[in-house]
Amino acid sequence: MERRPVIVSGGQTGVDRAALDAALELGWPAGGWCPRGRLAEDGAIPERYPLRELAGGYLERTRKNVQDSDATLIVGFGPPTGGTARTIDFCRQEGRPWLLLDASVTPLEEAVGLVRGFIDRHGIGILNVAGPRASGEPRSYDYARELVRRVLTAPSQSSSDQDR
To answer: Can you tell which superkingdom this protein's organism belongs to (predicted)?
Structure first.
């Protein structure tokens, strides 16, 4: 069965905001949790992003987005570090599936197939999208935005079983 999940993210610069932008540009349902004050590295997250504020910081936001999602897509460039690594920890703790995609070695077309397969295999209705902030990986926004856009508009595809 083909699915097109609701996209959630924390609104940080980079991967988070790219996922929200792709969904919103397509008129797709999107949302998620962000820290109180709509905190992000570039200041307050703009109001155009439909995020709910959470009394807590980045880690609380990350955990809540994992908890409220069926699964998490982590778009990284190399081994996960910092908050991206903590996202994996939260997925393990919450028993949620995740797909770790290394964008530094995965061409976009291949990535689309991997993500579509992950969504279809796990019956995902709400997909949390996470990864490095823009200051940590300048390529993250463009790659993640195009990936999410294509995932939401592409037909289902089978993929290898690289998710957990």
So the answer is: Bacteria
